[in-house]
Every structure is written in structure tokens, then in C-alpha cells.
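pinned: reference chain
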Amino acid sequence: MTSAKMIAVIMSISLVIAGAGAFILLKDTAADLTVAVGTKDCYEPWWIADELGYFRDAGVKIDIISVSGGGKATEAILAGRADIASAGTDPLIKVLNEGRGKYNLIGTYQNGESFLRMAAWNYDDDPSSTNTTADLEDPETLIGKVIGLDVTTGYYSAIIKYMNLNACTYEEITDVSQRKSDRVNIMHVPFNAQVPRLIGVGSVTQDIDAIIGGSYNLQAEYLAGNFSGGAPKVIISEEDGGTDQNFQSVPVFILATENAINNKGDAVMRMMEALQRACAFIYGVDEIDINDISSYTINDDACKLMADTGIFGLGWTKEIQKRSFEYSTWGLDFKVNDLNALKYSYDVIRKNSADRSTYRNVTDAEFFQFYDQRFMIALSEKGIINGYVPLVESAALGMNVSFTVDGDTAEDWSGISNDDLGNAVSFNTITSMVTGTLSEQGTPLWGTFDHHYLVFSLDGVEEGDDVRIAGMLDGRTTMTKYIVTAAEITDGKMVFIWGIEENENLVITVFRPGCLGYANTIYLNLVLSS
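pinned: its C-alpha cells
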């Protein structure tokens, strides 16, 4: 190597301070990044940045591989054809399972309030059919129906989780001829075939009852006006429906190879700067504070841009794009709930895999180690993103809920003498399911109603933590808030005795100053005896 070249290499290294350590970004102005990007909604920031020249303005050359969705994007990164991929939870689980360090999450740019969006055939408008409308908000209407979705994406674990939470019997089939009348039928249908098979297009026969997905649901609603007979309708699952905030989270992750992180760091930083600028364009502003997203409105110019590109196919209008934008929030971020979404998807995939041994038991802490937040921290320090709160592993993920059934624990509470309180109750850390039998206390500990009492402790709490326990029952939510005092903590634990009713679920959230909230929903599957 010549002296001139050596000097150039040395001068190409830029140092970004991230927290207590130094983050070395190797600056190579000739380095391009190859990115696998889907052609369905939720990938708009990539296409906006490309269409408006934001990557060029940021000083990075991006080669885009156009793919159908997250499943194909992760296939590209596994095959070594891409440095960066964008995907939801299910495809990412398979990539991260390849080994820690080979691939890492470096952030998210989109989140939504509800994962399940279904376009269903409205049989009520079809006089020739005796079927009824399939409706996510009424799970029993799905019995006997065939739901088509791309099972390589995050919609798969979402619908399985939905089935389990609502006690729906389901079966995965490979052809509509295998349809069972006594259960929900789930079948793989590629994105580009979903609308034709839902409504019948050209030579394609309508043979499925509903589709789960994103853009194609909305597209089906638009196309419905072009066909006679029954009219498909879009159903958005906005109510709890047995789900919780972690399950409903819709993160779209940015995944990078180890080589891109270590050897193309400056290019990755510039790429993310352009993405954040594209997210700001969605709201028609120059910069975004991710903690104040609700104050922004969707930019009509961004909607028109995406409709005019033709990227999302026939019938994609400015109005449809606006609806799609409104279902989600946009801006670079990463939250604890994003890790929880990965945990849920991992559990579903592993349980339903033909070879479960291919998916090792990945815990919360290991998932945390799959996230390399140094880019987010560096972008925050540069002022490119506003409102990002760095995750602290011990604070953000160390507050796992554990349950105590020891009668001695109850005796620590003044006035409690029922040794059977919380008797024979167990907690499954994978499913967050509490099972067993709880005896009813004839004389209530408080209030005027008889209750069944659950004894549990929160591990890892600290003085000043904000603990909120919400009971979810019959569409109603009641919440109690506690500010933890030092006197209530013993060996890092705070013990609770909580009155519960039949079929009630609990959402326990812990907030800590300077950290993001850690939430855990407890699904109660208890026999409540008098």
C-alpha cells in the first residue's frame, strides 16, 4: 500500500461517540449499500427516499432489490445479495436464528396500532350464498372460512396468536379442497394472488373468503366497485379482541449484515438519515419528534407521490395511500415492545415449525443483544432523530413479571390469613399464561364483592417506578397506578395481591424515569372455585 493510499484510509475513519464507548464508523465514499425492499405498503420511506433523491443528497448510493415483501427481503440478505433488508417479525426470526452477530437489527421506521387487517368477502350481499360475512371482530364467523395470507411474513404469527387468544380451532391447509367446516382454515397465498382469488379477476376464480395483509386489503376495497355481485369489505381490527398492545404492535425493522455495520458504517448512517427525512416527508415537515407523532398530519404530496409511482400496482390511489399512512406511525425508533413482538412471533413459529429444533430458545435478553442501537444513538446525538430513548438492558428488560404462590408471602400483608391464597397457580414464561385453581375468599380483603385473589411479585423494580395494573374484562379496562416506594421493595421485588374475576386478563406495565415502559400481559386460564 502506498503512503498516499494509507493516509486516505486513515482519514476515512470517522469516530462517533455513543454513550460510554466509542463507535467506529468506517467511512468509504465509494461504498454502495444493496437494500432489499418490498413492493407493498409499509416500505414507503425507502421508495420516497429513492424517488426524491434523498439517498443521493445524503451522499450514499443505494442499489434497491425490489421484492414482494419481508420474506423475500430476508431471503436476499441470507443469500448474500443484500446488505440491508426491511421486514416484519416472522421473517426476521429465521434470520436472527442464524446466529448472533451475523445480522443485527439497527432500528425501526414504522409502527401501527393493529396487525390484523382483513379484506373479507361480504356474503351478506351475495344472494346465491348461504355463508355469512367473515369478521375479525367476531371470531366465530371465521369458522369454515379460508383465510389467505403470506405465511412467510409477520401476518402468520399474528393470525395464529389471534386464533389462540380467542380459543378458535384452526388448521393450516395447502389447497381450498382441504377446507374444514368446523374450524378456521389458514392457507398460504402469495401477495400478488390474494386480491384475484378473493374477488375473482379474469380467469382467476374467487375461492377464498378473506385475506390478511396490508396494501392488498385496501386495494381490494378499491377494486370492489369494479365488480358485480357481492362486495368485499375491509375490516380493521381496532378493538382488543383478546389481544394486547405488544401483540398489536406492527414494527417494520431495519436489518443489517455484520459487514455493513462494521465496514460500511458511514453509508448506513447516511442511509438512515435519508430514511428519516422520508418519514418527515410523509408528514410534510422537516423533522420529526417521535414522541409527538400524534400532532402531525399526513402530507397529501407524499400520498400522491406513492400513488403516481405505480409501485403498489393497479388501483393504488392517493386516497388509499393516505389510509395506509394513517394506520401507522412513521419515524426511526426502537422500543421494548418491538422486542416483545419478536418474542411472540418466535414462540408461534417455533411451535408450528415442522422441525422445532431448528429454532433455539431465544430469551428476551438474547433478543436485546440482536439489536445494535449505536446507529440510533449516533443519529440522535447528531440531531437527525428527535425523541429516541436509548434502551438500557437491565432497566428495560429486567422487570419480568413472576408469580408467587407461597402462602408465606401472603402473611407479609397485614390482615391476610388465608393460607390458600393463590394456591396451585403456575406461570408459563413463554406464553404468559397463568393456569391452576384459585380459591375464593369468602370475606373480601377490600370492597364489597367476593373476589378470587392472585398473589404475584414484580422482580427488578426500583424506587420511583410507575407500576400500572389494568384489568381487561368484557371490553372494559380498569387501571390502578402505583408509585413504588423503597419500603415496599424486598430483594428487588414488590409483592401484589390482586382481586380478579372470571375471564379477566391483566396488563402490567412498569415505567421508569429515563427508560421506556416494560409491559407484560398476563393471560389467565384459571379454574376459579368457591
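why pinned: The radius of gyration is 25 Å. The chain is about 30% helix and 25% strand.
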